[in-house]
Amino acid sequence: MTALSAPYAATTDVHVTGRRVLATLIDSVVVGAAFTLLAAGTDSIEQVGPWEWVSDAPPWASVLYAVAALAYFVLMEGALGQTLGKMATGIRVVDERTGATPPGYAAAAIRTVLRVVDGLLGYLVAFVVVLSNPRRQRLGDMAAHTLVVRT
Q1: Is 113 domain-assigned?
Q2: Which of 7, 45, 85, 87 is the most exposed place for a label (fewest CB within 10 A)?
Q3: What is the span of the domain harbouring residue 140?
Q4: Where is it predominantly found (predicted)?
Q5: Is the residue at 122 inside a domain?
Q6: What is the pLDDT of residues 51-98, one digit of tens each?
C-alpha cells in the first residue's frame, strides 16, 4: 500500500490548499503579534508613516523572537499536528506513513526549517509545489514525510 492510498489519509483529504493558505495567514498574524508585543516591550517601535512602523529591537530580542517562532511551529505541529491557524481552518499535519498520527518533533523541525525556502516570494514557492504534486505537499512536507489533511 502506498502512502498516497494509506488507510487514514484518503487522496481527497489532502486537497486543502485553500485552507493551508488561510492557516498560513492566521499563523503569520499570531507570530507577527508576538513580535509586535516583544518590540513594544523593548520600546523599539517607531512610526515612520501613517501605516508604516519599524522596529529597532536589540539583538537579544530578535534571537528570542526567532526561537519563539520556531518553537511555535515545532512544538504545536510536532505534538498536536496543528498550529492555531490549522486548528481554525480544520486541517492538521500527519505522518505520511500512518496518515493519522502527528508527525513528531523531528519531522516538525524539518518542516519548519524548510519554511525558509517554501516561504520565498510570499510563499509562492510552496503554493506552486503544493499544486504540482498529487499529495499536495510543499518541500517541507516532502522532506519530513508529512501530509496536511482535513481534521
Answers
A1: yes
A2: 7
A3: 12-27+59-150
A4: membrane
A5: yes
A6: 888 888 889 998 999 999 999 999 999 999 999 999 999 999 999 998
Interior angle at CA 148, CA 66 and CA 146, nearest 5: 75
Give the pLDDT band of residue 5 (cuts 50, 70, 90). very low
Is the overall model pTM greater than 0.70, yes or no?
yes
**Residue 4 in domain:** no
**Contact (Cβ atoms closer than 8 angstroms) between residue 17 and residue 126:** no
What is the identity of the amino acid at 143? A
| Chain length of the chain | 151
Give how far Cα 36 sits from Cα of 32, 46, 56, Å: 6, 11, 12
Q: Three-state SS across 36-89?
A: HHHHHHCCCEEEEECCEEEECCCHHHHHHHHHHHHHHHHHHHHHCCCCHHHHHH
Q: How many domains does the chain have?
A: 1
Burial environment of residue 144 by CB neighbours within 10 A (0 to 12, 13 to 18, 19 or more): buried
Cell of 116: 525558509
* DSSP secondary structure code for residue 98 in this structure: T
Which of 97, 92, 100 lies closest to 8 in space, CA to CA?
100
